[in-house]
Protein backbone atom coordinates (compact mmCIF):
# COMPACT_ATOMS: atom_id res chain seq x y z
CA UNK A 1 0.00 0.00 0.00
CA UNK A 2 1.20 3.52 -0.85
CA UNK A 3 2.46 5.47 2.14
CA UNK A 4 0.51 8.72 2.54
CA UNK A 5 2.21 9.75 5.78
CA UNK A 6 2.37 13.55 5.97
CA UNK A 7 -0.33 14.00 3.32
CA UNK A 8 -3.56 15.86 4.10
CA UNK A 9 -6.76 14.86 2.32
CA UNK A 10 -10.28 16.24 2.11
CA UNK A 11 -13.02 13.69 1.39
CA UNK A 12 -16.57 14.85 0.68
CA UNK A 13 -19.39 12.36 1.20
CA UNK A 14 -17.14 10.74 3.78
CA UNK A 15 -19.90 9.55 6.12
CA UNK A 16 -21.04 6.63 3.99
CA UNK A 17 -20.33 4.19 1.18
CA UNK A 18 -17.45 4.95 -1.18
CA UNK A 19 -16.36 8.11 0.69
CA UNK A 20 -16.12 6.19 3.97
CA UNK A 21 -14.11 3.44 2.26
CA UNK A 22 -11.69 6.00 0.75
CA UNK A 23 -11.31 7.61 4.17
CA UNK A 24 -10.51 4.24 5.77
CA UNK A 25 -7.85 3.51 3.15
CA UNK A 26 -6.28 6.95 3.54
CA UNK A 27 -6.16 6.59 7.33
CA UNK A 28 -4.59 3.15 7.00
CA UNK A 29 -1.95 4.67 4.68
CA UNK A 30 -1.05 7.33 7.23
CA UNK A 31 -2.83 10.41 5.79
CA UNK A 32 -4.60 13.06 7.83
CA UNK A 33 -8.17 13.28 6.55
CA UNK A 34 -10.75 16.06 6.86
CA UNK A 35 -14.15 14.37 6.50
CA UNK A 36 -16.95 16.48 4.97
CA UNK A 37 -20.59 15.43 4.68
CA UNK A 38 -24.10 16.76 5.32
CA UNK A 39 -24.83 13.75 7.51
CA UNK A 40 -23.97 15.21 10.93
CA UNK A 41 -25.10 12.16 12.89
CA UNK A 42 -22.80 9.70 11.17
CA UNK A 43 -19.98 12.19 10.88
CA UNK A 44 -18.45 13.96 13.81
CA UNK A 45 -15.99 16.13 11.87
CA UNK A 46 -16.82 18.87 9.32
CA UNK A 47 -20.47 19.23 8.43
CA UNK A 48 -20.40 20.62 4.93
CA UNK A 49 -22.96 20.82 2.14
CA UNK A 50 -20.96 20.60 -1.11
CA UNK A 51 -23.56 22.71 -2.92
CA UNK A 52 -22.65 25.68 -0.71
CA UNK A 53 -19.44 27.46 -1.64
CA UNK A 54 -18.99 28.77 1.91
CA UNK A 55 -19.17 25.25 3.36
CA UNK A 56 -16.64 23.85 0.89
CA UNK A 57 -14.26 26.76 1.40
CA UNK A 58 -14.58 26.38 5.17
CA UNK A 59 -13.90 22.63 4.98
CA UNK A 60 -10.71 23.31 3.00
CA UNK A 61 -9.69 26.00 5.49
CA UNK A 62 -10.35 23.58 8.36
CA UNK A 63 -8.05 20.99 6.76
CA UNK A 64 -5.31 23.61 6.37
CA UNK A 65 -5.76 24.91 9.91
CA UNK A 66 -5.94 21.48 11.53
CA UNK A 67 -3.30 19.64 9.51
CA UNK A 68 -1.12 22.40 8.05
CA UNK A 69 -2.05 22.23 4.37
CA UNK A 70 -3.97 20.26 1.76
CA UNK A 71 -2.59 17.75 -0.75
CA UNK A 72 -5.49 15.58 -1.92
CA UNK A 73 -9.18 16.15 -2.57
CA UNK A 74 -11.74 13.39 -3.16
CA UNK A 75 -15.05 14.75 -4.46
CA UNK A 76 -17.35 11.87 -3.58
CA UNK A 77 -20.60 13.39 -2.25
CA UNK A 78 -23.53 12.62 -4.50
CA UNK A 79 -27.11 11.45 -4.74
CA UNK A 80 -29.99 11.56 -7.22
CA UNK A 81 -33.59 12.72 -7.20
CA UNK A 82 -35.08 10.61 -9.95
CA UNK A 83 -37.83 11.69 -12.33
CA UNK A 84 -38.42 11.43 -16.05
CA UNK A 85 -37.65 14.29 -18.41
CA UNK A 86 -41.34 14.74 -19.20
CA UNK A 87 -42.92 14.40 -15.77
CA UNK A 88 -40.20 14.70 -13.14
CA UNK A 89 -39.79 17.83 -11.01
CA UNK A 90 -37.78 20.70 -12.41
CA UNK A 91 -36.47 21.51 -8.92
CA UNK A 92 -35.34 17.90 -8.51
CA UNK A 93 -33.49 18.11 -11.84
CA UNK A 94 -31.68 21.29 -10.87
CA UNK A 95 -30.87 20.07 -7.35
CA UNK A 96 -29.30 16.86 -8.65
CA UNK A 97 -27.15 18.63 -11.23
CA UNK A 98 -26.18 21.18 -8.60
CA UNK A 99 -25.10 18.40 -6.24
CA UNK A 100 -23.20 16.08 -8.56
CA UNK A 101 -21.72 18.63 -10.95
CA UNK A 102 -21.84 21.87 -8.95
CA UNK A 103 -20.54 20.17 -5.80
CA UNK A 104 -17.60 18.71 -7.69
CA UNK A 105 -16.85 22.10 -9.23
CA UNK A 106 -16.76 23.72 -5.77
CA UNK A 107 -14.55 20.92 -4.43
CA UNK A 108 -12.08 21.41 -7.28
CA UNK A 109 -12.22 25.20 -6.98
CA UNK A 110 -11.65 25.58 -3.26
CA UNK A 111 -9.66 22.39 -2.78
CA UNK A 112 -7.47 23.30 -5.76
CA UNK A 113 -6.85 26.78 -4.37
CA UNK A 114 -5.81 25.32 -1.01
CA UNK A 115 -3.45 22.84 -2.69
CA UNK A 116 -2.03 25.62 -4.88
CA UNK A 117 -1.31 27.68 -1.77
CA UNK A 118 1.00 24.98 -0.41
CA UNK A 119 3.18 25.22 -3.53
CA UNK A 120 3.89 21.47 -3.40
CA UNK A 121 1.24 20.18 -5.83
CA UNK A 122 -1.24 17.42 -5.21
CA UNK A 123 -4.10 15.46 -6.73
CA UNK A 124 -7.88 15.61 -7.04
CA UNK A 125 -10.10 12.58 -7.68
CA UNK A 126 -13.73 13.05 -8.72
CA UNK A 127 -16.27 10.25 -8.37
CA UNK A 128 -18.36 10.33 -11.54
CA UNK A 129 -20.40 7.28 -12.60
CA UNK A 130 -20.85 4.75 -15.38
CA UNK A 131 -23.97 6.85 -15.96
CA UNK A 132 -21.64 9.39 -17.58
CA UNK A 133 -21.65 6.88 -20.47
CA UNK A 134 -24.85 4.88 -19.93
CA UNK A 135 -28.27 6.54 -19.45
CA UNK A 136 -30.47 5.73 -16.45
CA UNK A 137 -34.26 5.70 -16.76
CA UNK A 138 -35.55 8.63 -14.70
CA UNK A 139 -32.00 9.77 -14.05
CA UNK A 140 -31.35 12.36 -16.76
CA UNK A 141 -30.18 14.91 -14.19
CA UNK A 142 -27.82 12.43 -12.55
CA UNK A 143 -26.44 11.02 -15.80
CA UNK A 144 -26.00 14.44 -17.41
CA UNK A 145 -24.39 15.76 -14.22
CA UNK A 146 -22.00 12.81 -14.03
CA UNK A 147 -21.11 13.22 -17.72
CA UNK A 148 -20.39 16.83 -16.84
CA UNK A 149 -18.09 15.67 -14.05
CA UNK A 150 -16.08 13.68 -16.58
CA UNK A 151 -15.49 16.74 -18.77
CA UNK A 152 -14.99 19.01 -15.76
CA UNK A 153 -12.23 16.60 -14.71
CA UNK A 154 -10.47 17.01 -18.05
CA UNK A 155 -10.88 20.78 -18.04
CA UNK A 156 -9.61 21.09 -14.49
CA UNK A 157 -6.64 18.83 -15.30
CA UNK A 158 -5.76 21.19 -18.15
CA UNK A 159 -5.92 24.26 -15.92
CA UNK A 160 -4.39 22.89 -12.71
CA UNK A 161 -1.38 21.09 -14.19
CA UNK A 162 0.65 24.30 -14.00
CA UNK A 163 0.24 24.10 -10.21
CA UNK A 164 1.39 20.49 -10.07
CA UNK A 165 -2.14 19.24 -9.43
CA UNK A 166 -3.43 16.16 -11.26
CA UNK A 167 -7.20 15.71 -11.68
CA UNK A 168 -8.76 12.36 -12.55
CA UNK A 169 -12.14 10.65 -12.32
CA UNK A 170 -13.40 7.27 -11.22
CA UNK A 171 -16.57 5.96 -12.87
CA UNK A 172 -18.16 3.30 -10.64
CA UNK A 173 -20.69 0.83 -12.02
CA UNK A 174 -22.94 -0.65 -9.36
CA UNK A 175 -21.66 -0.45 -5.78
CA UNK A 176 -23.34 -1.87 -2.71
CA UNK A 177 -23.95 1.28 -0.60
CA UNK A 178 -26.98 2.97 1.01
CA UNK A 179 -27.46 4.83 -2.31
CA UNK A 180 -28.33 1.61 -4.13
CA UNK A 181 -29.66 -0.43 -1.19
CA UNK A 182 -33.20 -0.38 -2.60
CA UNK A 183 -32.09 -2.51 -5.54
CA UNK A 184 -30.67 -5.36 -3.46
CA UNK A 185 -33.83 -7.18 -2.44
CA UNK A 186 -33.27 -10.37 -4.42
CA UNK A 187 -35.87 -9.23 -6.96
CA UNK A 188 -35.73 -8.94 -10.76
CA UNK A 189 -33.74 -5.67 -10.80
CA UNK A 190 -30.94 -7.26 -8.78
CA UNK A 191 -30.94 -10.33 -11.04
CA UNK A 192 -30.92 -8.18 -14.20
CA UNK A 193 -27.94 -6.22 -12.91
CA UNK A 194 -26.05 -9.40 -12.08
CA UNK A 195 -26.68 -10.70 -15.61
CA UNK A 196 -25.20 -7.56 -17.19
CA UNK A 197 -22.15 -7.23 -14.94
CA UNK A 198 -19.37 -9.60 -16.01
CA UNK A 199 -18.28 -9.89 -12.38
CA UNK A 200 -21.81 -11.15 -11.66
CA UNK A 201 -22.20 -8.95 -8.58
CA UNK A 202 -22.04 -5.34 -7.41
CA UNK A 203 -18.77 -3.90 -6.11
CA UNK A 204 -18.07 -3.46 -2.44
CA UNK A 205 -17.16 0.18 -1.56
CA UNK A 206 -13.52 -0.73 -0.92
CA UNK A 207 -13.22 -1.97 -4.53
CA UNK A 208 -13.79 1.66 -5.59
CA UNK A 209 -11.65 3.13 -2.82
CA UNK A 210 -8.57 1.26 -4.10
CA UNK A 211 -8.66 2.73 -7.62
CA UNK A 212 -9.57 6.20 -6.28
CA UNK A 213 -6.65 6.23 -3.85
CA UNK A 214 -4.35 4.86 -6.58
CA UNK A 215 -5.24 7.84 -8.81
CA UNK A 216 -4.31 10.22 -5.98
CA UNK A 217 -0.97 8.59 -5.24
CA UNK A 218 2.57 8.53 -6.64
CA UNK A 219 1.93 5.34 -8.68
CA UNK A 220 -0.40 7.49 -10.83
CA UNK A 221 2.12 10.35 -11.18
CA UNK A 222 1.78 10.23 -15.02
CA UNK A 223 -2.02 9.81 -15.06
CA UNK A 224 -3.88 13.06 -15.62
CA UNK A 225 -7.30 14.15 -16.92
CA UNK A 226 -8.52 10.62 -17.42
CA UNK A 227 -11.48 8.46 -16.39
CA UNK A 228 -11.12 5.04 -14.82
CA UNK A 229 -14.24 2.92 -15.30
CA UNK A 230 -14.56 0.52 -12.35
CA UNK A 231 -17.63 -1.52 -13.19
CA UNK A 232 -16.78 -5.22 -13.13
CA UNK A 233 -16.98 -5.21 -16.93
CA UNK A 234 -20.55 -3.92 -17.09
CA UNK A 235 -20.06 -1.23 -19.77
CA UNK A 236 -18.89 -3.73 -22.38
CA UNK A 237 -21.92 -6.05 -22.12
CA UNK A 238 -24.31 -3.91 -24.14
CA UNK A 239 -24.47 -6.62 -26.80
CA UNK A 240 -26.38 -9.86 -26.66
CA UNK A 241 -24.35 -12.92 -25.65
CA UNK A 242 -23.38 -14.41 -29.03
CA UNK A 243 -20.75 -16.74 -27.62
CA UNK A 244 -22.75 -19.87 -28.52
CA UNK A 245 -22.88 -18.85 -32.19
CA UNK A 246 -19.20 -17.90 -32.33
CA UNK A 247 -18.01 -21.08 -30.66
CA UNK A 248 -20.31 -23.40 -32.65
N1 LIG B 1 -23.34 3.25 -5.28
C1 LIG B 1 -23.23 3.19 -6.60
O1 LIG B 1 -23.62 2.20 -7.23
C2 LIG B 1 -22.61 4.35 -7.35
C3 LIG B 1 -22.41 4.18 -8.72
C4 LIG B 1 -21.83 5.22 -9.45
C5 LIG B 1 -21.48 6.40 -8.82
N2 LIG B 1 -21.69 6.53 -7.48
C6 LIG B 1 -21.31 7.80 -6.88
O2 LIG B 1 -20.42 7.56 -5.80
C7 LIG B 1 -20.54 8.64 -4.87
C8 LIG B 1 -20.73 8.05 -3.48
O3 LIG B 1 -21.96 7.34 -3.48
P1 LIG B 1 -22.26 6.13 -2.46
O4 LIG B 1 -22.79 5.04 -3.27
O5 LIG B 1 -21.10 5.92 -1.56
O6 LIG B 1 -23.51 6.76 -1.69
P2 LIG B 1 -23.80 6.99 -0.14
O7 LIG B 1 -25.21 7.46 -0.09
O8 LIG B 1 -23.41 5.79 0.66
O9 LIG B 1 -22.80 8.17 0.24
C9 LIG B 1 -22.97 9.47 -0.27
C10 LIG B 1 -22.62 10.46 0.84
O10 LIG B 1 -22.73 11.79 0.29
C11 LIG B 1 -23.31 12.61 1.28
N3 LIG B 1 -23.94 13.78 0.66
C12 LIG B 1 -25.07 13.83 -0.07
N4 LIG B 1 -25.35 15.10 -0.42
C13 LIG B 1 -24.37 15.87 0.11
C14 LIG B 1 -24.10 17.26 0.12
N5 LIG B 1 -24.91 18.15 -0.49
N6 LIG B 1 -22.98 17.69 0.75
C15 LIG B 1 -22.15 16.82 1.38
N7 LIG B 1 -22.38 15.50 1.44
C16 LIG B 1 -23.46 15.03 0.81
C17 LIG B 1 -24.34 11.71 1.97
O11 LIG B 1 -24.73 12.21 3.24
C18 LIG B 1 -23.59 10.37 2.04
O12 LIG B 1 -22.86 10.25 3.25
C19 LIG B 1 -21.69 9.51 -5.35
O13 LIG B 1 -21.17 10.62 -6.05
C20 LIG B 1 -22.45 8.59 -6.29
O14 LIG B 1 -23.16 9.32 -7.25
C21 LIG B 1 -22.25 5.53 -6.73
TrEMBL record:
Transmembrane intervals:
none
Keyword Oxidoreductase part of the UniProt annotation: yes
Assigned keywords, A-Z: Oxidoreductase
Record's keyword annotation contains Oxidoreductase:
yes
Alphabetical list of PROSITE patterns matching this protein: ADH_SHORT
Q: Which superkingdom?
A: Bacteria
Family from the record:
Belongs to the short-chain dehydrogenases/reductases (SDR) family.
Family annotation (PANTHER family): DEHYDROGENASES, SHORT CHAIN, ESTRADIOL 17-BETA-DEHYDROGENASE 8-RELATED
Q: What is this protein called?
A: SDR family NAD(P)-dependent oxidoreductase
Name the source organism: Pseudonocardia spirodelae
Amino acid sequence: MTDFTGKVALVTGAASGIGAAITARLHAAGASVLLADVDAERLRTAVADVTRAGDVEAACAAAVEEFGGLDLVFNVAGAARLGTVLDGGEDDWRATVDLVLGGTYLGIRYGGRAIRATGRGGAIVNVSSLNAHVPLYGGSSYAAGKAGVEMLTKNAALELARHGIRVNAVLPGLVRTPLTAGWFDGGPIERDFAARILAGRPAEPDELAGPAVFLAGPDASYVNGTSLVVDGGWEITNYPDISAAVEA
